[in-house]
Amino acid sequence: MTEPLSRTIAALASTALLYELSLTPKPGLVDRFNNGSHDDMDFPLFIKSSMALFPFFKDYVEAGLNHSGSLQALFEQVRSIGIEAEKAMFEATKGINTHKGANFSFALILSAAGYFLKGHPKSFPLSSEDSSAILKLIPAICSQSMEKDFQQIETQNRETLSYGEKLYLEYGLKGIRGEAAGGYPTLQLLLPMLRYSLEHGSAEEAFHKATIFLMAHVEDGNLIHRGGIAVWQNVKRQSRNALSQNLSSEQTRQWLSDYDRFLIQKHLSPGGTADFLALSYFFIQLEGFL
Fold first, then answer.
1. What's the pLDDT score for residue 1?
2. How far from 99 is each of 65, 81, 115, 279, CA to CA, in Å?
3. In 3-state terms, what secondary structure has residue 217?
4. Phi, psi dihedrals of residue 97, rounded to the nearest 5°
5. Whole-angstrom Cα distance, residue 48 to residue 67?
6. pLDDT, tens digit only, all 290 positions of the chain
7. Which end of the chain has the lower number of beta carbons within 10 A, N or C?
8. Smallest Cα–Cα separation from 281: which of 170, 171, 195, 157?
9. 172 burial class (0-12, 13-18, 19+ CB within 10 angstroms)?
10. Domain of 205?
11. Among candidates 159, 149, 156, 123, which has minimal Cα distance to 5?
12. How far apart, in whole angstroms, are the C-alpha atoms of residue 263 and residue 243?
């Protein structure tokens, strides 16, 4: 009974990854025109990665649809699925990290969507209120485990920590785990803006502006890893300046193209922006906009 629904929702998530990949230009990121600031990634590699994740996206949805225990127990279940999904991704990409962050977020969002739809059978498309309800489930699913993760970071040997974990210790930056524990507040800010833009203009223009918005707001570990805190803050500042200019569609595209060249020259990549673009494409499809 749940198979068609889980396939339908998983297909939207996989398509969201492809929409994000195809959006062009995207500063420092792989798109249809170039490989951004990545020497080891290209357009076909991201397609392979997206296809490798699809079966696991379906498993995330089914985990939520079939779950009857605590929401914390649901997190432990999807975390196990996520480990297998990550292995499949790395196998498809020969060890290159294309979608690790997106896989983490989709594990939570898709399982939350399945759990929500189990208790609230709906016909598609869903409403903006439904999307909000799905996001509000996520802290109950993962915040307890995220807090444990942060506590463990504080007791670990620094030599064994990942770069993101070191950023937490040094600057209090919680990255995507903090977003998840808070129910993705950045998405909750972005989605109303996207809905408005899609009602008054093209999808390309809406997501181009979303790209700049995300570069101005996302706590981007990838940018910090490549350039440091000051560089990340500078990217945010320049993106906010672009947003404040109320650029036309053509001017927005030109700004993105110019900034793409700038970030490529500096070898900088806002990978966090790419992940949030994919998540927003998912919800916008869920609501029937695309």
1. 44
2. 24, 15, 24, 12
3. helix
4. -85, 95
5. 30
6. 467 899 999 999 999 999 999 999 999 999 999 999 999 999 999 999 999 999 999 999 999 999 999 999 999 999 999 999 999 999 999 999 999 999 999 999 999 999 999 999 988 999 999 999 999 999 999 999 999 888 888 888 777 787 778 888 888 889 899 999 999 999 999 999 999 999 999 999 999 999 999 999 999 988 998 999 999 999 999 999 999 999 999 999 999 999 999 999 999 999 999 999 999 999 999 999 98
7. N
8. 195
9. exposed
10. 3-286
11. 123
12. 18
Domains of the chain: total? 1
Distance CA 237, CA 198 (A): 26
CA distance 201 to 89: 35
Task: Please give the pLDDT value at position 2.
Answer: 62
Q: 139: which 2 tokens? A: 């802290």
Question: Which amino acid belongs to residue 123?
Answer: S
Give the orientation angle of helix 271-286 with respect to helix 100-119, to 10 degrees. 20
Residue found by looking up tokens 């053509």 in the block: 250
Q: Which amino acid is at 28?
A: G
The one-letter code for the residue type at 88 is A
Cβ-contact 145, 177 below 8 angstroms: no
124: left (phi over 0), alpha (psi -120 to 50) or beta: beta
Three state DSSP letters for 17-84: HHHHHHCCCCCCCCCCCCCCCCCCCCHHHHHHHHHHHHHHHHHHHHHHHHCCCCHHHHHHHHHHHHHH
The CB density around residue 130, as the number of other CB atoms within 10 Å, is 19
To which H or E segment does residue 74 belong?
helix 71-93
Angle between helices 3-22 and 271-286 (to 10 degrees): 130
